[in-house]
Design goal:
Shape: elongated
Distance between the termini: 32 Å
Largest sheet: 5 strands, parallel
Number of strands: 10
Number of domains: 3
CATH topology of the largest domain: Hypothetical protein af1432
Radius of gyration: 28 Å
CATH architecture of the largest domain: Orthogonal Bundle
Order of helices and strands: EHEHEHEHEHHHHHHHHHHEEEEHE
Strand order of the largest sheet: 2-1-3-4-5
Structural class: alpha/beta
CATH superfamily of the largest domain: Hypothetical protein af1432
Number of helices: 15
């Protein structure tokens, strides 16, 4: 990728001179003023380095570089100025977060060296972001794989929510849709600290001791602590922490957060979790949604309406998808289970709704080595 440079100045003669002297060394663009510079960044960016004059009409260099910082935070910013006082210099550094501060007249060789250093800084920033992205992706995959093995029921349910999350994200024009998916996928990761027997009794509706109830209450906070240790997952951790909070502020955690102050992901998780629980008790989806609408103050009203509308549409779409009954040897990544996978003696390996992955297929193969598995298996086929 070409590391492009943008010069912004209201002096056309200076811009022409810079182009003549630097075009052989750099991929160079120019803009006559701050607004023109922002327009060029929007249309032709990203730029590795932006060099701006300090004194320009309508939008000065400080305002321009501050806007560049907001709109293109990875771009390295350099300022050229003809007159400097300490107050202006401090303001420039604080508001524009500049990389270099150069004084006019600036020798071409000095300017060229500053630009080359800016390009090196830009490459470093991108490399660090790529490393962070790979680390984040790897951490998330590891957590998901662990959950798919230790709690296949929760993992399968989270996978089945992909479409409704996509629909809600588009309906509300959310930018960080990935946070919703992660919050749904990792919402129950705190359950790994709870004894399996307690989880089994809780999910089957059996009575729990006071200690066990407290374990379940603390699970979201445990999950949030785990997730908050991973860079960029602070929003996901907060959504997971508040996933059982009612819209009117009741529930846990017991604090003053309520209404729109509850993270959007938590409000959605509350609806989807309660819907799942009601259906697990034998209610149809439509009846479960009716019950939820009667619970005054429990849910975000517009979000609940959006979820209901989605499931009305999804019912028709679901009927049209290809389904099949297949042998274990024919299972493949991307298939969605329409029946549980169990051993012949009734041990649940994966539950209905689970989207198969390479890791879960490996788990199935390992179980098959130890015990026969019921066949055939009903699946929804992936899109071609």
């Amino acid at each position: 990728m070409t590391e492009k440079i943008l010069f912004v100045d209201d002096d056309a003669n200076l811009l022409a001179a810079l182009e003549r002297n630097l075009r052989k060394q750099f991929a160079l663009d120019t803009a006559a003023g701050g607004q023109a510079g922002l327009d060029k960044i929007a249309r032709h960016g990203p730029y590795a380095v932006v060099v701006s004059d300090r004194q320009m009409p309508n939008m000065d260099g400080i305002q321009f570089l501050a806007a560049v910082r907001r709109n293109a935070p990875d771009t390295v910013r350099i300022m050229l100025t003809g007159n400097v006082d300490l107050e202006q210099a401090v303001r420039t550094v604080n508001e524009g977060n500049i990389f270099r501060f150069l004084i006019k007249p600036c020798p071409i060789e000095v300017l060229a060296r500053a630009i080359a250093d800016g390009q090196a800084q830009y490459r470093l920033v991108l490399a660090e972001k790529e490393l962070l992205h790979k680390t984040l992706s790897g951490s998330i995959k590891l957590l998901s794989d662990i959950l798919s093995i230790t709690d296949p029921q929760s993992f399968g349910r989270a996978q089945s929510l992909r479409e409704v999350i996509d629909h809600v994200a588009k309906k509300f024009a959310l930018e960080n849709e990935w946070e919703l998916h992660l919050a749904a996928m990792l919402a129950n990761i705190g359950d790994v600290a709870i004894p399996p027997e307690t989880l089994l009794r809780a999910r089957s509706g059996q009575p729990l001791s006071e200690v066990e109830e407290q374990m379940l209450t603390n699970a979201p906070a445990t999950a949030a602590r785990l997730l908050s240790n991973i860079p960029r997952l602070e929003g996901v951790a907060r959504a997971v922490r508040y996933q059982h909070k009612q819209f009117d502020g009741k529930g846990f955690p017991s604090d003053t957060v309520k209404g729109d102050a509850i993270p959007f992901g938590a409000r959605l998780l509350k609806i989807l979790s309660d819907l799942h629980q009601l259906q697990a008790k034998g209610l149809t989806r439509a009846k479960a949604l009716d019950v939820m609408e009667s619970r005054s103050g429990w849910y975000d009203p517009s979000l609940l309406e959006t979820v209901r509308a989605f499931y009305g549409i999804a019912a028709d779409r679901q009927a049209a998808r290809p389904r099949a009954c297949v042998a274990l040897s024919d299972l493949a990544p991307g298939m969605i289970l329409l029946s549980d996978i169990e051993t012949v003696d009734g041990f649940l390996i994966l539950s209905t709704g689970h989207r198969l992955t390479g890791m879960t297929l490996e788990k199935i193969r390992n179980f098959r080595r130890l015990s026969p598995i019921k066949e055939p298996i009903s699946v929804e086929l992936p899109d071609n």
